[in-house]
Amino acid sequence: MAAGQSRSSNQLVVPQANQALDQLKYEVAQELGIQIPQDGYYGFMATRDTGAIGGHITRRLVQIAEQQLAGKFTR
Asked: Which InterPro entries match (predicted)?
């Protein structure tokens, strides 16, 4: 499978967000000290590592959404 492609059936609500999410994935992996395979094949990565990346991405996206909501709905 080529780099940047995924076998996931999940579809983004905003397809243009794909590049930003990929960038976030690499940033989080770097912060955690996890090397993402250059060929895009994650089969040799530990499940613990891929789960850690996904968990931190989710945490960061929730934080961003909370900040945006707090800014929009200040009383």
From this structure: SASP_alpha/beta-type, SASP_alpha/beta-type_CS, SASP_DNA-binding
Residue 18 one-letter amino acid: N
pTM over cut 0.90: no
Q: Please, where are the H alpha helices in 9-72?
A: 18-32, 47-72
Comparing 6 with 68, which gets the higher pLDDT? 68
- CA angle 21–26–30, rounded 5-degree value: 145
Q: Counting Cβ atoms within 10 Å, is residue 53 exposed (0-12), middle (13-18) or buried (19+)? A: buried
- Which residues in 7-41 are b (16+ Cβ under 10 Å) and which e? eeeeeeeeeeeeeeeeebeeebbeeeebebeeeee
DSSP code at position 45? S
What is the rounded (10 degree) CA torsion for 39, 40, 42, 44? 0
